[in-house]
Every structure is written in structure tokens, then in C-alpha cells.
Amino acid sequence: MPSPLHLLTHPAREPIRRWVLSAFPRNGGGTIDYDHPIGDPGLFGPDSATWRIHSDFPGMLAGGLAALMLQTLHPLALAGVWDHSNFRDDLLGRLRRTTAFVGGTTYAPHEQAQQLIERVKHIHAQVIGHGEDGRPYAADDPHLLTWVHVTEAHSFLQGYRRFSHITLPAGAADRYYDEVRRIAEALGARDVPASEAEVTAYFRHMRSELIYSERSRVVLDILSRVRLPVPIAGLSRNVFLLAGAALLPEWAERMLQRTPLQRAQARLAARALWSVSPVFRAALKDGIASRACARVSVTSESLQSWA
Predict the structure, then answer these.
(1) DSSP string computed for the chain
(2) CB 3.0 to 4.6 Å from 6: which of 2, 34, 69, 299, for a disulfide?
């Protein structure tokens, strides 16, 4: 007999599935084959913390938005986006590309994941310029690569903790940071934090380099108006945006000058997203994580536990 949760959530599943696949297409619109070759575990494999954490769509989407907010605080990282990205007209496209890269490097077979990394390295090599203060920047600067990676990994992990309904066991956060640093290092990052304590220390060290500038305000304003259609009545794009803001560290909220009202709204949005996150899991049983599980002959349900 279907469970009460199944009966309550079933009508919403297909709209959610259609929305996710339209907003964030499988393969990122590319040609990744997540089904072959059979047995290929990719860069991490089904026993990894990375496969589990990255399989939670609400946490990953809210985390991705939180990472963008954090990244606006580094003037040189922001300068590269400001000068070389079409974020003003297509911020959703930037989110899609980030989603495609993270999904591909997490779940694609080994060779295709490596190809994604090489493609991004080629793009990074062309992104050079000078910040507002005249300092040179390059997207393949190991220091900037580490900043971008840590903001994303931290935000994804916090999204999983907040929205997955699964308790993160002791040591899992350290496992996750130690695993995903391989991607950053393959892109050229150096001295990448490999544990939760190291990430905390890294952020403490980086704060002297961070600035909330007029450019930061412009990007955040564009982000607040991003076209992020949602599939369920009663949810607005602001639920996802504000739930992302709820993942920010306290020091970042202060730097971003978030008001008490904004913080309260973020907490309410986080509760709303938490309440519907099981519906996303039920609706996305055939996503790329499930396909990768089938490729290595494990059940997708195995990603819902840490046994």
C-alpha cells in the first residue's frame, strides 16, 4: 500500500521533474554518457561522500546560489566574472554550466570527467585581465581556483546538511572535503583545504582579501532577479534564493550587509525548502546520480544512507 507521503507528494512529482530537466538539462546540454561504460566508477565511485552529497538537488541548488553570493566578495574572482561572463543577461546559464560541470565530474565515467576538466582548464587559460585596483588576475591562478572551489564545496555541504533530511555522520564532512579537492587540484588549485577544520581556517585567513564592493552589489541585485521558475504552487524563486542565503556563514552575512529582516526571511525560506525537499527526491529517481549507480550496479537508494 502506498505510504501517506507517497500519496501526498505524487501529484507534484511530474511537474518537479519537468521543471528540473528544463531548467537544468541532463548532460548540461552536452554529450556525456552516464550509462557507459558499465562498471566505470568515475572519479569518486558509489561509496564516496561526494556521490551522496551531490545527489541532493535542493541542497545543491541552494548551495550553488550561496556559493555565488560568497564569490562576489573576492574582488579578483569577481573581476573575471565581470569582464568575461555574460552574467548580466544569462545568470541562469552560468548556474547551468556550473551544475553541468559539478554533475559531470561527480558522476560521469572517468575519461569523460577528465575531458570536462581539460575543457574548463582551456577556458580558464583565456580569462585574464586587471581588477578595479589594477591588480592582474587570471582564472587559472591557483589562489583564485582554491577560493572558488572552497566556496562551492562548503555551500554544497551546508545545503546537504540543511535540506537532505539525512544526518551527516561523524567524519563525513572531512571525507567530502578530502575527496572533492581532487577536482580543484586537477584544475590547478593548490593548498586546497582537505577537512572541515581546514576550511574554517581557510575562510578566517581569506577575510582580509574580501571586499563588499559596488560590483558585489550589482551582481547580487542581478541574482535577486534571476529567472528561476519553480514547479510547485506556493513556491517562488525567492524560496531558493533565500534558502541559499540561509547557508551563508555568519561572517559573510555581516560582510554582505544582510539586514535582520533578510536573515529572518532566509530562515523561513530554508524551512519551506526543507519541507518540500523529499518531493524532489521522489521526482528525480532517474537523474544522473541514479544512472551512474546503475552503471556500477548499485541501487540509487544506497546514496540515501551512510552505512
Answers:
(1) ---HHHHHHHHHHHHHHHHHHHHS-GGGGS---SS-STT--TTT-TTSHHHHHTT-HHHHHHHHHHHHHHHTT-HHHHHHHHHH--HHHHHHHHHHHHHHHHHHHHHS-HHHHHHHHHHHHHHHTT-EEE-TTS-EEETT-HHHHHHHHHHHHHHHHHHHHHHSSSPPPTTHHHHHHHHHHHHHHHHT--S---SHHHHHHHHHHHGGG----HHHHHHHHHHHT-----SSTT--HHHHHHHHHTTS-HHHHHHTT--HHHHHHHHHHHHHHHHHHHHHHHHTTTSHHHHHHHHTT--GGGGG---
(2) 2
